[in-house]
Amino acid sequence: MARGWGPATYAVTYAGLALTLFFLERLVPYERRWLEHDGQIWPDLGHTVLSSVAAQGGALALAMVGLSRVFGLRPATGLWPAGWPIAGQIALGMVVAEFGLYWGHRIAHERDWLWRFHAVHHSSTRLWFFNNSRFHFVDALKSVLLSIPLLLMVGAPGKIMIWVSALTSFIGILTHCNVEMRFGPLNYVFNTPGLHRWHHSTDVREGNQNYGESLVLFDLIFGTYFNPNRRPPVAIGIKEALPKTFLAQVMAPFFWQKYRLVPSEAERDAVGSSRR
After folding, report:
1. Three-state secondary-structure class, residue 181
2. CA–CA separation, 131 vs 135, rounded Å?
3. Cα 257–Cα 263–Cα 267 angle in degrees, nearest 5
4. d(CA 8, CA 27)
5. Structure letter (DSSP) for residue 250
6. Rounded CA gap, 252 and 250, in Å?
């Protein structure tokens, strides 16, 4: 990255991780039922492309894959601790961005006008590396607008924005992978596959937890950390019956009354402001 190979470095390492997960999911799957095709590969791909190209557009593309002339050479400003070791600056950048990502994710579950877009992601009935970017483009844009500007506000330099965006995407693909793993103390630092499987539960008391995108710091602070000593549910998804085709899924949030379910009184009491 320092030599101007940012885009190539990111593309090669991300593709290598994806390929590794593809084989590991078949060699040591966490849940064999999730290896079965759900007919959503093309919609998953469509949402990935649309959210990455159309919604995240210039902001996330510039920060994630380099284009050092624009972001990579942006100097530190304001109170940013430019004298810190690079690892410390990256850690600080992750925490700053995570604050916006956490609250953006949480309100997407607690407010119906945002849940309708986020529901596209949760409509998956299995978790595997390929559907980690299955986001409606409006949902993806919301995440960008609540995280990248925070880094700009605190004066983060371009190289830190690149690192934070790249690491967030790497952690994202890991959290959705269907690979048998143990995480131990890492569950109290990062959003792991073990934690994120609970987040996809159809039970709102389990699903409205673990909102962290990359880190669980704010889940621990605000009381939404959830990691009981039992196996997460295999049946995941949502109660709304979203359409199966890509274009219909893109349009569904704009005609939400057709799909919206009113939460039961018990669900409202359980989570306050329910998302389903």
Report:
1. coil
2. 9
3. 160
4. 29
5. H
6. 6
Distance CA 166, CA 176 (A): 16
Which amino acid, 149?
Answer: P
From first to last of its 276 residues, the chain has per-residue pLDDT tens of 656 666 778 888 999 999 999 999 999 999 999 999 999 999 999 999 888 765 455 454 544 444 444 455 677 888 899 999 999 999 999 999 999 999 999 999 999 999 999 999 999 999 999 999 999 999 998 888 888 889 988 999 888 988 898 899 999 999 999 999 999 999 999 999 999 999 999 999 999 999 999 999 999 999 999 999 999 989 899 988 899 999 999 999 999 988 876 554 445 455 444 444
Contact 206, 198 (CB under 8 A): yes
Find the helix or strand (DSSP H, E) in which 96 lies: helix 86-110
Q: Which two tokens stand for residue 266?
A: 């018990």
Token couple for 39: 């007919």
